[in-house]
Amino acid sequence: MSDPAIKRIGRDGDTLFIGPVQRKYMIRHQIDLHQATVEENGHPIPEDMVIVREFFCVGRRDEAMEKARRGFKRKYKQYEGHGFDGGLHTFVLPGNTAKRRLGAY
């Protein structure tokens, strides 16, 4: 989501939605911008926000890659074509790694 869109949401005091292709540093920027805009406009900071992440979890990375490659590859190729971060390597992980990375958000 662009900075102007985040400010528009913040001016109304609405809940922030963060899509699946943002890296952690961008998520932090978006949260900070949203909260500052909400406060500047006299609204309480919403208790909730929506952060969407996509994971495909199975026992081993090679198994996950084999099962998920076709659909994820097509989808994230389109995302990259629009200038978004995130490639196939970011989203297809063995189960334990996915759980650990999900905890970072």
Task: Give the SSE map.
Blueprint (H helix, E strand, L loop, with lengths): L2 H10 L4 E2 L5 H17 L9 E2 L4 E3 L2 H21 L6 H4 E3 H9 L2
Helix pairs in contact: 1-2
Task: Give the structure's gist in a few sentences.
By secondary structure, this protein is mainly alpha-helical. Helices cover 58% and strands 10% of the residues.
Folded structure, characterized:
- With 105 residues, this protein is mainly alpha-helical.
- The chain has 2 domains: 3-51, no CATH class; 56-103, no CATH class.
- Helices cover 58% and strands 10% of the residues.
- It is built from 5 helices and 4 strands.
- The chain has a two-stranded parallel ribbon. A two-stranded parallel sheet has the order 3-4.
- It is elongated, with a radius of gyration of 16 Å.
Instruction: Figure out the total of helices.
Output: 5
The total of beta strands comes to: 4
Cross-sheet strand order for the largest sheet: 1-2
Residue fraction in strands? 5-15%
Low-confidence stretches: none
CA-CA gap between termini:
17 Å
How helical, in percent, are the residues? 55-70%
Q: Please provide the ordered H/E string of secondary-structure elements.
A: HEHEEHHEH
Going by helix content, strand content and strand pairing, the class is: mainly alpha
**Cα radius of gyration in angstroms:** 16 Å
Largest sheet: 2 strands, parallel
Outline, from the CA principal axes? Answer: elongated
Mean pLDDT: 78
* Count of distinct structural domains: 2
Give the key terms:
105 residues, mainly alpha, 2 domains, two-stranded parallel sheet, two-stranded parallel ribbon, 4 strands
